[in-house]
Amino acid sequence: xxxxxxxxxxxxxxxxxxxxxxxxxxxxxxxxxxxxxxxxxxxxxxxxxxxxxxxxxxxxxxxxxxxxxxxxxxxxxxxxxxxxxxxxxxxxxxxxxxxxxxxxxxxxxxxxxxxxxxxxxxxxxxxxxxxxxxxxxxxxxxxxxxxxxxxxxxxxxxxxxxxxxxxxxxxxxxxxxxxxxxxxxxxxxxxxxxxxxxxxxxxxx
Length: 205
Hints:
alpha+beta
């Protein structure tokens, strides 16, 4: 099998599994139970030296950044499907939303998760939780205002929706979905109704 994803449910490898199904690619998806301690064991560190997810292989080539992986797959194996290129009018917006999903929103939702329930209680910092909550609300307001009356971030569904949609999923997981506005909530519901999302989110070890 040329393409292989080692997938841990609910983690950022979900972005890659989702893209694989959207792009209808022939790829092996090996789903493992998520265990933070096991990610630091030698066998896994040999796959991903950072001890994080995802880890993806194209023959001997290893990739570990979810947003980069989905762009790589679309352009190398799907003729640019669900991507945008410099000749297209939406290219700038596409790049911005692709990065916004991780660089713009990802750090704040990580802080929400960590200081809500992932970290041991003695390591949680109330002021960090409050800060992350405010910053995430700011990001959500930007997203709410940007959606207008569109179904997706661009004219049609794209990888940018996978990038941003995963962070909205984490927001729900962290029990902060209440901060989503009406447009963002409806947008997330549309994403979850997609067949590829249903297949990817149903993967179990």
